[in-house]
Amino acid sequence: MIRVRNLSKNFGRIRAVDDASFDVAAGEILGFLGPNGAGKTTTMRVLTGYIGADSGSVAIDGRELAEDRGAARAKIGYLPENNPLYEEMTVSEYLDFVGRVRGMTGDALRERIGVNLGLYGLEEVATRDIGELSKGYRQRVGLAQAALHDPPILILDEPTSGLDPNQIVEIRNLIREIGKTKTVILSTHNLSEVEATCSRIVIIHKGRIVADEKTEALDLEGRESTVHVVIRGQGDLRAALGGLPGVTGLNETEGENGSRGFALRCGHDADPREALFDLAVQRGWKIIEMHRESPKLEDVFAQLTRT
Predict the structure, then answer these.
(1) What's the pTM?
(2) What CATH number corresponds to the domain at position 129?
(3) Does residue 36 sit in the same domain as residue 125?
(4) CB-facing half-sphere around the CA of 227: CA atoms within 13 A
(5) Which end of the chain is more exposed for a tag (fewer CB within 10 A), N or C?
(6) Residue-by-residue DSSP string for 196-218
Protein backbone atom coordinates (compact mmCIF):
# COMPACT_ATOMS: atom_id res chain seq x y z
CA MET A 1 0.00 0.00 0.00
CA ILE A 2 2.83 2.44 0.90
CA ARG A 3 6.46 2.03 -0.17
CA VAL A 4 9.16 4.41 1.04
CA ARG A 5 12.67 4.09 -0.36
CA ASN A 6 15.81 6.02 0.65
CA LEU A 7 13.83 9.09 1.68
CA SER A 8 15.83 12.15 2.73
CA LYS A 9 14.80 15.70 3.58
CA ASN A 10 16.98 18.62 4.67
CA PHE A 11 16.09 21.96 6.20
CA GLY A 12 19.20 24.01 5.63
CA ARG A 13 22.01 22.22 7.42
CA ILE A 14 19.61 20.03 9.40
CA ARG A 15 18.96 16.56 7.95
CA ALA A 16 15.46 15.85 9.23
CA VAL A 17 15.04 12.50 7.40
CA ASP A 18 18.08 10.46 6.45
CA ASP A 19 17.81 7.63 3.89
CA ALA A 20 14.61 6.19 5.41
CA SER A 21 13.01 3.07 3.87
CA PHE A 22 9.96 1.11 5.02
CA ASP A 23 6.71 -0.42 3.73
CA VAL A 24 3.16 -0.39 5.05
CA ALA A 25 0.89 -3.24 3.97
CA ALA A 26 -2.81 -2.88 3.23
CA GLY A 27 -4.92 -3.20 6.38
CA GLU A 28 -1.95 -2.66 8.72
CA ILE A 29 -1.89 -0.28 11.71
CA LEU A 30 1.71 0.95 11.84
CA GLY A 31 3.09 2.78 14.86
CA PHE A 32 5.65 5.37 13.72
CA LEU A 33 7.71 6.20 16.81
CA GLY A 34 10.53 8.51 17.69
CA PRO A 35 11.58 11.13 20.23
CA ASN A 36 10.82 14.79 19.62
CA GLY A 37 12.78 16.05 16.63
CA ALA A 38 13.43 12.55 15.27
CA GLY A 39 11.82 13.22 11.88
CA LYS A 40 8.33 11.77 12.40
CA THR A 41 6.29 14.78 11.35
CA THR A 42 8.59 15.60 8.43
CA THR A 43 8.18 12.04 7.13
CA MET A 44 4.39 12.28 7.49
CA ARG A 45 4.32 15.56 5.57
CA VAL A 46 6.35 14.05 2.75
CA LEU A 47 4.09 10.98 2.59
CA THR A 48 0.99 13.15 2.37
CA GLY A 49 2.50 15.39 -0.32
CA TYR A 50 2.54 18.56 1.76
CA ILE A 51 6.28 18.96 1.27
CA GLY A 52 8.67 17.39 -1.22
CA ALA A 53 11.63 15.15 -0.49
CA ASP A 54 15.20 16.02 -1.45
CA SER A 55 15.86 12.44 -2.56
CA GLY A 56 14.27 9.00 -2.48
CA SER A 57 10.78 7.93 -3.48
CA VAL A 58 7.29 7.36 -2.08
CA ALA A 59 4.71 5.16 -3.78
CA ILE A 60 1.06 5.15 -2.69
CA ASP A 61 -0.88 2.08 -3.83
CA GLY A 62 1.65 1.49 -6.59
CA ARG A 63 1.61 5.09 -7.86
CA GLU A 64 4.71 7.25 -7.43
CA LEU A 65 3.89 10.34 -5.40
CA ALA A 66 6.29 12.52 -7.41
CA GLU A 67 4.65 11.53 -10.71
CA ASP A 68 1.01 12.15 -9.74
CA ARG A 69 0.74 13.95 -6.45
CA GLY A 70 -3.00 14.60 -6.77
CA ALA A 71 -3.96 10.99 -7.42
CA ALA A 72 -1.76 9.75 -4.58
CA ARG A 73 -3.10 12.32 -2.11
CA ALA A 74 -6.68 11.35 -2.98
CA LYS A 75 -5.97 7.96 -1.39
CA ILE A 76 -4.83 9.52 1.90
CA GLY A 77 -6.64 11.10 4.81
CA TYR A 78 -4.39 13.19 7.04
CA LEU A 79 -4.85 14.39 10.61
CA PRO A 80 -1.89 16.66 11.44
CA GLU A 81 -0.69 17.18 15.01
CA ASN A 82 -2.24 20.67 15.12
CA ASN A 83 -5.81 19.79 14.18
CA PRO A 84 -6.85 22.46 11.60
CA LEU A 85 -10.42 23.32 12.57
CA TYR A 86 -12.57 26.41 11.96
CA GLU A 87 -14.03 26.86 15.42
CA GLU A 88 -16.78 29.29 14.35
CA MET A 89 -18.32 26.60 12.10
CA THR A 90 -20.66 23.89 13.30
CA VAL A 91 -19.45 20.32 12.91
CA SER A 92 -21.74 19.71 9.92
CA GLU A 93 -20.76 23.01 8.27
CA TYR A 94 -17.09 22.19 8.64
CA LEU A 95 -17.43 18.72 7.14
CA ASP A 96 -19.47 20.19 4.28
CA PHE A 97 -16.71 22.78 3.70
CA VAL A 98 -13.97 20.13 3.71
CA GLY A 99 -15.96 17.97 1.33
CA ARG A 100 -16.47 20.81 -1.14
CA VAL A 101 -12.76 21.65 -1.03
CA ARG A 102 -12.14 18.04 -2.02
CA GLY A 103 -14.58 18.37 -4.92
CA MET A 104 -17.45 16.46 -3.32
CA THR A 105 -21.00 17.74 -3.92
CA GLY A 106 -24.67 16.88 -3.71
CA ASP A 107 -26.07 13.63 -2.37
CA ALA A 108 -22.66 11.95 -2.31
CA LEU A 109 -21.30 14.62 0.04
CA ARG A 110 -24.38 14.58 2.28
CA GLU A 111 -24.16 10.81 2.51
CA ARG A 112 -20.48 10.86 3.50
CA ILE A 113 -21.14 13.56 6.12
CA GLY A 114 -23.90 11.43 7.63
CA VAL A 115 -21.72 8.31 7.65
CA ASN A 116 -18.84 10.10 9.36
CA LEU A 117 -21.04 11.82 11.92
CA GLY A 118 -22.25 8.37 12.96
CA LEU A 119 -18.92 6.58 12.71
CA TYR A 120 -17.07 9.11 14.86
CA GLY A 121 -19.84 9.70 17.41
CA LEU A 122 -20.62 13.26 16.33
CA GLU A 123 -24.35 13.11 15.64
CA GLU A 124 -25.27 14.71 18.98
CA VAL A 125 -22.93 17.68 18.39
CA ALA A 126 -23.45 18.07 14.62
CA THR A 127 -25.13 21.49 14.99
CA ARG A 128 -22.79 22.85 17.67
CA ASP A 129 -19.92 25.22 16.98
CA ILE A 130 -16.58 23.41 16.98
CA GLY A 131 -15.17 26.01 19.37
CA GLU A 132 -17.66 24.88 22.02
CA LEU A 133 -16.52 21.24 21.93
CA SER A 134 -14.11 19.43 24.23
CA LYS A 135 -10.66 18.49 22.96
CA GLY A 136 -11.81 14.90 22.61
CA TYR A 137 -14.72 15.86 20.36
CA ARG A 138 -12.50 18.18 18.32
CA GLN A 139 -10.16 15.25 17.68
CA ARG A 140 -13.17 13.22 16.53
CA VAL A 141 -14.03 16.03 14.12
CA GLY A 142 -10.45 15.93 12.84
CA LEU A 143 -10.70 12.19 12.25
CA ALA A 144 -14.03 12.63 10.48
CA GLN A 145 -12.61 15.24 8.09
CA ALA A 146 -9.56 13.07 7.38
CA ALA A 147 -11.80 10.12 6.45
CA LEU A 148 -14.57 12.13 4.76
CA HIS A 149 -13.61 11.12 1.19
CA ASP A 150 -13.29 7.47 2.30
CA PRO A 151 -9.56 7.08 1.57
CA PRO A 152 -7.93 3.65 1.97
CA ILE A 153 -5.08 5.19 4.00
CA LEU A 154 -5.19 7.36 7.13
CA ILE A 155 -2.10 9.10 8.49
CA LEU A 156 -2.57 10.35 12.05
CA ASP A 157 0.05 12.58 13.70
CA GLU A 158 -0.24 12.54 17.52
CA PRO A 159 -4.04 12.02 17.52
CA THR A 160 -4.30 11.73 21.34
CA SER A 161 -2.02 14.64 22.25
CA GLY A 162 -3.52 16.72 25.06
CA LEU A 163 -6.43 14.37 25.75
CA ASP A 164 -7.45 13.13 29.18
CA PRO A 165 -7.25 9.36 29.94
CA ASN A 166 -10.90 8.68 29.07
CA GLN A 167 -10.63 10.57 25.80
CA ILE A 168 -7.42 8.69 24.93
CA VAL A 169 -9.23 5.37 25.35
CA GLU A 170 -12.09 6.60 23.13
CA ILE A 171 -9.72 7.67 20.32
CA ARG A 172 -7.75 4.43 20.59
CA ASN A 173 -10.96 2.45 20.18
CA LEU A 174 -11.83 4.54 17.13
CA ILE A 175 -8.39 3.90 15.60
CA ARG A 176 -8.78 0.16 16.13
CA GLU A 177 -12.16 0.29 14.38
CA ILE A 178 -10.71 2.33 11.52
CA GLY A 179 -7.92 -0.23 11.17
CA LYS A 180 -10.45 -2.96 10.33
CA THR A 181 -11.12 -1.36 6.95
CA LYS A 182 -8.18 1.01 6.31
CA THR A 183 -4.40 1.18 6.40
CA VAL A 184 -3.31 3.44 9.29
CA ILE A 185 -0.01 5.11 10.13
CA LEU A 186 -0.07 6.36 13.71
CA SER A 187 2.77 8.77 14.46
CA THR A 188 3.31 9.23 18.18
CA HIS A 189 5.75 9.08 21.09
CA ASN A 190 3.08 7.60 23.38
CA LEU A 191 4.32 4.02 23.74
CA SER A 192 1.26 2.65 25.55
CA GLU A 193 -0.88 3.95 22.69
CA VAL A 194 1.21 1.98 20.20
CA GLU A 195 1.11 -1.22 22.27
CA ALA A 196 -2.68 -0.92 22.50
CA THR A 197 -3.38 -0.30 18.82
CA CYS A 198 -0.52 -1.21 16.47
CA SER A 199 0.52 -4.49 14.90
CA ARG A 200 3.92 -3.22 13.76
CA ILE A 201 6.37 -0.55 14.84
CA VAL A 202 8.89 1.58 12.97
CA ILE A 203 11.23 3.68 15.15
CA ILE A 204 13.02 6.71 13.71
CA HIS A 205 15.92 8.41 15.49
CA LYS A 206 17.86 11.40 14.17
CA GLY A 207 16.16 10.91 10.84
CA ARG A 208 17.17 7.27 10.42
CA ILE A 209 15.07 4.13 10.78
CA VAL A 210 16.53 2.17 13.72
CA ALA A 211 13.86 -0.54 14.09
CA ASP A 212 11.12 -2.09 11.96
CA GLU A 213 9.40 -5.03 13.66
CA LYS A 214 6.11 -6.61 14.57
CA THR A 215 5.09 -5.21 17.95
CA GLU A 216 5.60 -8.45 19.87
CA ALA A 217 8.95 -9.16 18.17
CA LEU A 218 10.30 -5.71 19.01
CA ASP A 219 9.40 -6.23 22.65
CA LEU A 220 11.30 -9.50 22.99
CA GLU A 221 13.62 -10.39 20.15
CA GLY A 222 17.27 -10.02 21.14
CA ARG A 223 16.46 -8.05 24.31
CA GLU A 224 17.42 -8.68 27.90
CA SER A 225 14.87 -9.74 30.50
CA THR A 226 15.13 -9.20 34.25
CA VAL A 227 14.60 -11.62 37.13
CA HIS A 228 13.69 -9.91 40.39
CA VAL A 229 14.40 -11.90 43.54
CA VAL A 230 14.24 -11.18 47.28
CA ILE A 231 16.34 -13.53 49.42
CA ARG A 232 17.05 -14.00 53.13
CA GLY A 233 20.36 -15.79 53.52
CA GLN A 234 24.04 -15.69 54.44
CA GLY A 235 27.19 -15.43 52.35
CA ASP A 236 28.18 -13.45 49.28
CA LEU A 237 24.80 -13.38 47.58
CA ARG A 238 25.91 -10.92 44.93
CA ALA A 239 28.76 -13.09 43.68
CA ALA A 240 26.69 -16.28 43.77
CA LEU A 241 23.78 -14.78 41.86
CA GLY A 242 26.07 -13.08 39.35
CA GLY A 243 27.58 -16.47 38.50
CA LEU A 244 24.26 -18.07 37.51
CA PRO A 245 24.03 -19.17 33.85
CA GLY A 246 22.59 -16.49 31.58
CA VAL A 247 23.02 -13.63 34.07
CA THR A 248 24.84 -10.71 32.41
CA GLY A 249 24.70 -8.30 35.33
CA LEU A 250 22.80 -7.42 38.47
CA ASN A 251 21.78 -4.54 40.69
CA GLU A 252 20.92 -4.77 44.36
CA THR A 253 17.47 -3.48 45.22
CA GLU A 254 15.72 -2.74 48.48
CA GLY A 255 14.91 -5.60 50.84
CA GLU A 256 13.14 -5.68 54.20
CA ASN A 257 13.32 -7.52 57.52
CA GLY A 258 16.86 -8.72 56.87
CA SER A 259 16.29 -9.78 53.26
CA ARG A 260 18.15 -8.53 50.20
CA GLY A 261 16.69 -7.79 46.79
CA PHE A 262 18.40 -8.20 43.42
CA ALA A 263 17.52 -7.47 39.79
CA LEU A 264 19.33 -9.97 37.56
CA ARG A 265 19.78 -8.93 33.93
CA CYS A 266 19.53 -11.97 31.68
CA GLY A 267 20.48 -12.53 28.07
CA HIS A 268 17.95 -13.34 25.34
CA ASP A 269 16.16 -16.64 26.08
CA ALA A 270 18.03 -17.02 29.40
CA ASP A 271 15.95 -17.87 32.47
CA PRO A 272 18.04 -18.59 35.59
CA ARG A 273 15.12 -19.11 37.98
CA GLU A 274 15.41 -22.89 38.19
CA ALA A 275 19.17 -22.71 38.80
CA LEU A 276 18.56 -19.95 41.35
CA PHE A 277 16.06 -22.12 43.22
CA ASP A 278 18.50 -25.06 43.28
CA LEU A 279 21.23 -22.75 44.57
CA ALA A 280 18.94 -21.43 47.30
CA VAL A 281 18.19 -24.98 48.45
CA GLN A 282 21.90 -25.82 48.45
CA ARG A 283 22.90 -22.70 50.44
CA GLY A 284 19.92 -22.74 52.79
CA TRP A 285 18.55 -19.42 51.54
CA LYS A 286 14.88 -18.50 51.78
CA ILE A 287 13.38 -17.01 48.63
CA ILE A 288 10.81 -14.42 49.72
CA GLU A 289 9.86 -13.36 46.21
CA MET A 290 10.91 -14.11 42.64
CA HIS A 291 9.50 -13.10 39.26
CA ARG A 292 10.72 -12.62 35.69
CA GLU A 293 10.04 -9.35 33.88
CA SER A 294 10.08 -9.37 30.09
CA PRO A 295 11.50 -6.30 28.36
CA LYS A 296 9.01 -3.48 27.84
CA LEU A 297 8.60 -1.35 24.76
CA GLU A 298 9.81 1.61 26.83
CA ASP A 299 13.11 -0.21 27.49
CA VAL A 300 13.62 -1.08 23.83
CA PHE A 301 12.73 2.46 22.75
CA ALA A 302 15.22 3.92 25.24
CA GLN A 303 17.99 1.59 24.05
CA LEU A 304 17.45 2.48 20.41
CA THR A 305 17.15 6.26 20.87
CA ARG A 306 19.62 6.87 23.70
CA THR A 307 22.47 8.37 21.65
Answers:
(1) 0.76
(2) 3.40.50.300
(3) yes
(4) 25
(5) C
(6) HH-SEEEEEETTEEEEEEEHHHH
